[in-house]
Amino acid sequence: AKFLSIESNPITLARAIMSDQRRHPEAKGDLTMILSSLMLACKFVSNAVRKAGIASLIGISGSSNVQGEQQKPLDILANDIFINSLKYCNKIAALASEEETGIYIIDNPDEAKYVIAFDPLDGSSNIDVNVSIGSIFAIWKRPDYSKPVVLEDFLRTGAEVEVSGYCIYGSSTQLVIATKEGKVDCFTLDNSIGDFILTHPNLRIPKKGNIYSVNEGNSHFWDKSMKEYVNLVKTPQDDNTYSLRYVGSMVSDVHRTLLYGGIFLYPADKKSPNGKLRVLYEVFPMSFIVEAAGGKATDGRRRLLDIKAHDIHQRSPCILGSPDDVDTIVAIYAKNDEEE
Ligand code: P6P
User: Fold this and answer.
1) Which of 42, 68, 104, 204 gets the most CB atoms within 10 Å of its CB?
2) Which residue, judged by its Cα, is nearest atom 1 of ligand 1?
3) What is the residue with the minimal CA distance to atom 12 of ligand 1?
4) What average pLDDT does the segment 272-278 reach?
5) 122: closest CA among 94, 96, 97?
6) In DSSP terms, which residues pair with 163 in a beta bridge?
7) Phi, psi of 35 (to 5 degrees)
8) 4 — pLDDT class (breaks 50, 70, 90)
């Protein structure tokens, strides 16, 4: 019967956004327009990612991005697709991209109320070995949209996010969107009709999981609390033992954590004192989504969404997942800080 309902009553992303909008009579439909543009961008990127191997888009394009990493043509293409899709919806005043040094201001005929930060293709080092990758975004409402765009429009807390989401280009293409009302929906792209269909409405993360996800190759550089926590989950206990699952593509590791539960960790370490992940377009959107699904997101000591960004490319440690699992590591940090 459930399958039948999708067959005979497919809830497309467009329809879901429209019904969301109807719940907010004051809404002008701006977010509807922005999400429609993002949906188009994700379809285009999905198409490009799946053709990459054939279209020999793989390989080094020679230019390098602001992160000093070798840019692959798909990075460039995905960035251009997102910028162009967002430029013409007339609802975004400016954007910050992992691939752009500074903010990219869009000339709008009227007052655009929103700004967006995105990573157009996160995990791109995995493209050549056919590991899932993804696009990640977060949208803020500008504090004062009667004024021209300023950098401060982006230097916000994660708690001020209006909508955030990611698109994972894996065995299927799935778009996960979270709103500040705490609603998380997952849509799956049906290529035969070229539309995203609501397949996992109202996603909730399991209260506790049995998977931990971290790059153990960095364990030599972890702080005391991280070592103590990972040692704890590796010690078989009667009620549950943990498995390690680490893809090395944030969208994949977070998506699995959201659906199966458990914990994802990219902590600070001696090599990367602020961790590796970027606050504006990796840590904030993923923390916002996990919290909206009933999970927690911390740097070990403080809630990640309470961080106020001071630079659009700043990094932060990132520990997120099932509330019980996150509580366990937070208690270890608190105990060790107490003892110091
Ligand atoms: P490491 C991919 O390059 C990325 O930015 C994230 O998608 C991923 O979680 C992380 O880096 C992996 O980093 O150091 O474990 O290879």
Assistant:
1) 42
2) 248
3) 248
4) 96
5) 97
6) 139, 179
7) -65, -35
8) very low
pLDDT of residue 173: 97
pLDDT higher than threshold 50 for residue 1: no
Model confidence pLDDT, tens digit, residues 17-51? 878 777 777 777 899 899 999 999 999 999 999 88
User: What single DSSP character describes residue 303?
Assistant: B
Q: Which residues line ligand 1 (CB under 6 A)?
A: 122-123, 125, 215, 248-250, 253, 266, 276
Q: Which residues contact 46 (CB under 8 A, 6 or more apart)?
A: 167, 169, 173, 189
Helix then strand then coil, % of the chain, to nearest 5: 40, 25, 40
CB 325 within 8 Å of CB 208: yes
- Distance in angstroms between the alpha carbons of the first and the last residue of the chain: 58
> Which residues is 278 bridged to in the sheet?
315
- Read off φ and ψ for residue 94, nearest 5 degrees: -160, 165
Predicted ipTM beyond 0.90: yes
**Displacement of CA 308 from its chain's centroid (Å):** 17
